[in-house]
Amino acid sequence: MSATRYTYLGPEGTFTEAALRTLPEAATRELVPMVSVPAALDAVRNGEAAAALVPIENSVEGGVTATLDELASGAPLMIYREVLLPITFALLVRPGTKLSDVKTVTGHPVAQPQVRNWLRTHLPDALWESAASNADGARLVQEGRFDAAFAGEFAAATYGLESLVTAIHDAENAETRFVLVGRPARPASPTGADKTSVVIWLGDDHPGALLELLQEFAVRGVNLMLIQSRPTGAGIGNYCFAVDAEGHISDRRVGEALMGLKRICPKVRFLGSYPRAGMSPADVRTLRPGTSDAEFIEAADWLARSQDGRA
Questions:
Q1: How far does Cα 249 stand from its chain's mean position?
Q2: Beta bridge partner(s), residue 31
Q3: How far apart (Å, rounded) are the C-alpha atoms in residues 268 and 211?
Q4: Could you give the CA distance from residue 115 to residue 245 in angstroms, rounded to a whole number?
């Protein structure tokens, strides 16, 4: 395995590359762009890279399905870190292009919902076609296949383009969440401001099946930050659920919730416990009474004493 190589969703000039370069260790790693999320993650699975940074959630469009599906299938991988990156787009064009010249536009599919209103107002007749990434869209504009691409302003120089319009976004404070993914290992120690990610498969489909899964978290006071259903490919009505929960697997409330899920679900895939981006322990909400590690330990001690006749 190359311990110094990180892959990311390429080509050069993507928001993913910009997010990766915010990590301190990126300065000492070989950063290799890949053509797709599966390719970036397969390089880690095959030992060609130590880790991969890929987008997993957008504040406007929600979960990035390519990443969620890849983490749910294939050889297991683990999330070790997350990065939040503010997202604003520029309309990149070949030098000399005017807005009235733009008849075709491109960008990553996740970008379209973030610029839809701007397009409707300023380029109502432009034809949109998706690209593998925003930077790949810029490359296609460079090659003359499209008139304009929505990408990061920083990508213009890489592809010899101009930023015709900047600061394009339909939603204020839009951001994308990226995750650094590696091969499974022991999770890092808890920081007090952590997140745990899992994929859960439903067993038999019956009324209240999803509620039963959620109750494993609720009764232990574990707050859920994301839950998204994804088809398993086994037929209509067969789903798994990607879940992000507050806390670390070593926290008693989180660990017991995962054990509860393992008892009632045919399959649970642990995707990692890792620090929450931009959070410190002081930012974490106060735990509900009865859900701290000390209270779990006290309850277990009471049970043991009761079993021994010492209660």
A1: 19
A2: 6
A3: 16
A4: 30
The three-class DSSP label of residue 90 is: strand
Question: What's the alpha-carbon Rg for the chain, to the nearest Å?
Answer: 22
The model scores a pTM over 0.70: yes
Three-state secondary-structure class, residue 39: helix
For 294, residues 6+ apart whose C-beta sits below 8 A from its C-beta are: none
Counting other chains too, the contacts that 115-124 makes at CB distance below 8 Å and 24 or more residues apart are 115/89, 115/150, 115/168, 115/169, 115/170, 116/170, 117/170, 118/168, 118/169, 118/170, 122/165, 123/99
Residue 1 pLDDT level (bands cut at 50, 70, 90): low
Using the 8-state DSSP alphabet, how is residue 123 labeled? -
Dihedral Cα 170, 175, 176, 180, nearest 10 deg: 170
* Residue matched to tokens 């929450």: 276
Distance in angstroms (rounded) separating the CA atoms of residues 242 and 97: 43
Residue entry with tokens 């504009």:
141
- Contacts for 309 with CB less than 8 Å, ≥ 6 apart: none
Q: Give 142-183 pLDDT, tens digit per residue.
A: 999 999 999 999 999 999 999 999 999 888 888 999 999 999
pLDDT 10s digits, 233-284:
777 767 889 999 999 999 999 999 999 999 988 899 999 999 999 888 888 8
Tell me the pairing of strands 127-130 and 239-246: unpaired
Half-sphere exposure in the Cβ direction for 76 (13 Å, CA): 12
The helix (H) or strand (E) run that includes residue 127 is: strand 127-130
Q: What share of the chain is helix, strand, coil (3-state, %, to 5)?
A: 30, 30, 40
